[in-house]
Amino acid sequence: MPEPVRRPYVAANWKLWGTRAQAASYCERLRELLPPAPQRPAELAVCAPFTALDTCVAALAGNGVEVAAQTMHAERTGAHTGEISAEMLLEVGVAAVVLGHSERRELEGESDRALAAKVPAALDAGLRPILCVGETEAEREAGDMERKLRHQVGEGLDGVSDERLADVVIAYEPIWAIGSGAVATPDQAQEAVAFVRALVGGRSERAADELRVLYGGSVKPANAADLLTQPDVDGALVGGASLDPEDFVKIAAAAL
Description:
Helix content is 40%, strand content 14%. It is built from 11 helices and 8 strands. Helix 1 runs parallel beside helix 2 (53-59) and helix 10 packs parallel to helix 11 (245-253). The protein has one domain (9-243): Aldolase class I (TIM Barrel). Helix 3 (86-91) links the parallel strand 3 and strand 4. The protein is an alpha/beta fold. The longest helix is centred in the C-terminal third of the chain and has 16 residues, at 186-201.
C-alpha cells in the first residue's frame, strides 16, 4: 500500500498580539506574499485574539488561510463569565481552535480534565482542534517526556471516538523551547512527534497514519527546514516568528 499523504499544516499563533488594525495590515501583507493556494506546500492558519477574529476572517476570505481561535470553553452557554463557546467562534467564520497551549496550562490553570471536554466539543461543533502537548525541561531531564506525553495525549483524546481521531491536529511543543530561543534538535523533534503518533496508533493505526502532528517551540526561518522535513513532523505551530508575515511565509515554504 502507498504511504499516506499528510498535507503539512503551519499555524501562526499570535498570542497576546494583534489589534484589529494590526490584524488587517498583517493579513493584507500575507495575501501579497503567498502564492495561490494550490501552489502552497502547506495548509496555513492564523491564530488571532478574539477581538481580531472577524477582521482576519474578512481579510483572508477566499485565500485558503484558516482562521483559528486561541482557546474556547467546552460548554455552549451558562455561567462562565469571560468565556467563548465553539458556536460563537463559528458565527464569525473561525475554522480551528488551539487547545491546551502550555502557557494556558501554566498561567491560566487549564487542566487535562478541561481539555478532555474541550477537544470533543470543538469537533462536535465543526472546529478543527489543535491540541498542544509537551514536557518541561525538568521532566525531560528526569526522563519523563514519554510519561508526560502519554498522559496529555490520553486525556486530551479520551472523549474522541477512534473514527474522529484523525480530525484532530496535535502540536508537540517542548515547554523548555517556547519563547526561550532554545529549539529541539531535529532528532529530538522527530523522536517526540513519532512517540505522539505511536500513542494514537495504540487506538487506531489508520488514524495515526492520517493525523497531523506539528512541532512548536522557537521555530524560525533559519531552523524550519531541518525541523519540518523530519518524517513524522507534519508542520509547525509558530509563535514569535509568526508576527512577521515575511518570516511566517518563509517557515511555511519549508514544509514538505
